[in-house]
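Pasting as-is:
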Amino acid sequence: MNTLIPPTTFFFFSFFLLFIFTSNLPSAAADIVTDRDGDALRNGGTYHILPFFGVRDGGVELAATGNETCPLTVVQSSTSQILRGLPVRISSPYRIAYINEGLILNLAFASSPSCAPTPPKWTVVKDLPEGQAVKLPGYRSTVSGWFKIEPSSLKYLYKVVFCARAGGTCGEVGISVDDEGMSRLVVTEDEGIIIRFMKASSVGV
């Protein structure tokens, strides 16, 4: 025998689903994230993420750290030949054309070594000597959550933030320099790095 769902129960259930979906959408007041040319970041576009300090400090790339036999650690480039680092694909699960501040995002390198997982998506790994490190998939102690882009205190410059699903705590992505001088990207309770975005097709630094 089929049981009919009371209209009031169906209404409140539908309202609950609508609330869950819309609460994660960007606010109408949220600004569009722009690159260094002043153009809006496209959903699914590829960009170089460039820290905004020091001429010798470059973009992000991959490196093998610790016991890794494959480069799984996201680091800041210190090699002048690849100062801009590797292109990063910035995408949102929502069907929108451009990236807003505060929007839930996936960050993934546009390409990676053949030994690395596919897709080369950024994750956060806990319980490491440097704290919570930004790495590619492959570690057991991965923190479930998402990245987002927030405005910095400087106009038209930004910071990357990671929010853990459990507890809803967020931390800015910063730099931790190890004993070998490697600048690893980590989630920190302190001030993170201020960044700008450059189209992967752009020429020059």
